[in-house]
Specification:
3 domains, Alpha-Beta Plaits, 14 helices, Molybdenum Cofactor Biosythetic Enzyme, Chain A, 26% strand, six-stranded mixed β-sheet, homodimer, alpha/beta, five-stranded mixed β-sheet, Maf protein
């Protein structure tokens, strides 16, 4: 029975505050998808006795221990010799692995330091996991141990599986997905497949999403999880079933979820809002201009994070002063005087000016008070006005946002991008928004 | 003797991959500054037996256990009752804490759910740590335990200290700094103070910094640590000595480090490059305009992350197309035709156009190939040209940057900001740059 997992992260960089343990986060998410229960995460610095302690304790808790880090070539990389010691196994030198390391150095035209060959050593019973992206292979071992497991009264002989991988995320992640996950599925002895589908949403609170999705998905059909990385929240469906049946059910349930959430879903998988905007603009054959005040360039920055955005993005006019708004965007002096820089009237003039000046199909404009200063009783910090101009269309709305300066800027950029996405898809723009 | 610390993080959000354990990272850094050694980090989900296991194990390893999380009001918040059980102590209800929680709800005009009073319960011997920012107070306990410590052969009675804090970072951090750190210093029984000074640098590699700083700082004078959060690297000096002596030594050693590193230090403490740019512009009484192509708005976005940037920032012209460069910035068609959009000539015309149009004291311009497509043998991906225009000054330089699209954009924005900073401080602009 393989059910409980312990994640074991090794490295002084984790115990001295240099980096956060993002490997454990990533692996915990993967384990959840595999139907495993992460019982604990243990982090140890580069000390042999502490690493050994962590392995001994991990065996008490988990059927499976997944370790990252401590496989480097230097003398403070102690994982493999400590694991061998804990297992009571000698090390063996693997000539095939050594040859791959030598070749990697040769390809880079560099001389291999002799200590890199430490990375070709493994506990005797290890099955090697290849690392196409680096010099440190991983490995896995299955062993029998006599111990008192958590929750048990007496010592017993139990089977323990262990996986050892390098700590570099770009080497570790494909190693897990390509070599470890299939092995875990096999070990779990089920021919079931586990499939997931993720919807990226913007505009509903987590509790509203929870309610809407639960209304159309029965618990036995799919497992649901929500993850807020504000201003967006992802909804993940997890289906476990026989091949064929799983795909069909996921498609069917996913269909219902999309229908229930409607335009609040802006993308699937890991796609960002700015990439969804790009797709929608390309699809429509449209070009984009931006006029920003309070968001200060963030909307343009996000749009240009997408490779190939030069196909639809023309210009972003970041006009922070009134003079720049008049000069570059032709906002009338009277509009600024009568309604103020933070007004729907000014936002509309900015959007129209940006579209006129650039010749773009659509232009979106933002103007507001990012704070922490500059608020008034009438227009408190977080007041932001939006406008969108396109052929035969000019809309605007005032929103009351909240939070610190960077937060107001981020929310502003998210709304502006969602307006453009909705326009490009022919959806009602003014329905964009969100509740706290 | 208080030397070894275990960090214990509790919460299902950590064992299901919802969030990374950034509290542990922050605390590990703080512990290092206090002269403590973080022996392990243990993470447990919201299960009573697993939390109890983690506490028992933590006592084996650490003189001090610092716990975060599991202090919420709901039934899956199990830290306090589990700690009381592990300590063998009853819970006591603290009326003063309960009253504060009631008042907090009253201030927010909300009805207090009855279960919030769970947060006014503490193990009997606990000393309460106030939480001015939330409903969950923390607490600390000192106890005697009989156990086999790591590295010991036999059971012995040892003193253990424990600190329990809420998991919300904005509540936990001030609680640690204001109430826990002073107590730890006192416990350590030394009248020494530990002082730190951090320099933010841009333009030297970690190894070059290491060499330069070590040439002027002897190991017994101060402890050094480097942290790369590319494109910048911080250099931290840590001095431990008697009050008065410590301040004097830190000032003296810091002086030497600043002199050795020169303009590569752009700020001290946690200050960002964009804030340093703002300070330098204010100091000079100058205003800023920006002209961006490949960086797509990121320079403007960073400048406007600083509160009060409207005092010096006028406008950012993000001209992605040639047409926009000609229209908004007046870049001559012949310049674009003869040298291309990615050229020092175009960058110069962009900077001059931005300054002319805005009336700003200084304008900086970027134009390049962010990738992944668009490179040529002559101008590969990562080629970026910069220019700066100011009264009586026009300079430009071509840089070859590297990495993915977002990376090239980030490096571009960093160089552009550093140019403005150097100009405002009267430093040689063209010496800005960095080695890999």
């Amino acid at each position: 029975m393989l059910e409980k997992v312990v994640l074991l992260s090794t490295g002084d960089e984790l115990t001295t505050g240099k980096i956060a343990d993002t490997n454990a986060q990533w692996l915990a998410d993967r384990c959840l998808s595999l139907g495993l229960d992460v019982v604990a995460v243990l982090v140890a610095g580069d000390h042999r006795d502490r690493i050994a302690w962590a392995w001994e304790r991990a065996f008490e808790l988990g059927d499976l221990v997944v370790s990252t880090g401590g496989l480097g070539p230097t003398s403070d990389d102690l994982t493999t010799e400590t694991v061998a010691e804990v297992l009571g196994e000698p090390l063996r030198f693997d000539e095939a692995s050594a040859e791959k390391i030598r070749q990697l150095f040769a390809r880079l035209g560099r001389v291999m330091p002799e200590n890199n060959l430490r990375q070709a050593q493994f506990p005797k019973s290890a099955v090697i996991l290849e690392n196409p992206l680096g010099t440190a292979p991983g490995y896995r071992v299955t062993c029998e141990r006599r111990l008192v497991a958590l929750g048990a009264r007496d010592a017993a002989t139990v089977t323990r599986h262990l996986v050892v991988m390098p700590g570099v995320p770009r080497e570790m992640k494909p190693m897990f997905d390509d070599q470890v996950a299939p092995w875990i599925r096999e070990l779990r002895g089920s021919t079931d497949v586990i499939l997931t589908r993720t919807f990226q949403t913007f505009g509903m609170s987590e509790s509203a999403l929870d309610e809407a999705v639960n209304a159309v998905v029965r618990p036995e059909e799919a497992r649901l999880s929500f993850r807020a990385s504000f201003p967006q929240i992802s909804v993940k469906l997890l289906v476990r079933d026989q091949p064929g049946r799983a795909e069909a059910r996921l498609a069917e349930v996913g269909q219902r979820v999309r229908a229930a959430l409607g335009p609040v879903v802006f993308a699937e998988g890991e796609k960002t809002m700015e990439a969804a905007v790009g797709d929608a603009l390309r699809e429509r054959g449209a070009t984009l201009a931006i006029a920003e005040s309070c968001s200060g360039g963030l909307v343009g920055h996000r749009v240009t994070e997408v490779a190939g955005s030069s196909a639809y993005f023309i210009a972003d006019y970041v006009t922070y002063t009134n003079a720049a708004k008049m000069d570059v965007l032709g906002v009338p002096r009277e509009t600024l005087k009568e309604f103020g820089a933070v007004s729907e009237e000014t936002a509309r003039a900015m959007a129209e000016g940006a579209r006129r000046r650039s010749g773009a199909s659509v232009a979106v404009a933002t103007t507001g008070i990012a704070g922490p200063d500059g608020g008034t009783p009438d227009k408190p910090v977080g007041t932001v006005c939006f406008a969108l101009s396109a052929d035969g269309m000019l809309v605007s709305r005032r929103h009351q946002l909240w939070g610190t300066r960077d937060w107001v800027k981020l929310l502003t950029s998210q709304l502006a991008l969602d307006w453009v996405r909705r326009w490009a898809l022919g959806l009602p723009v003014l329905e964009s928004g969100f509740r706290r």
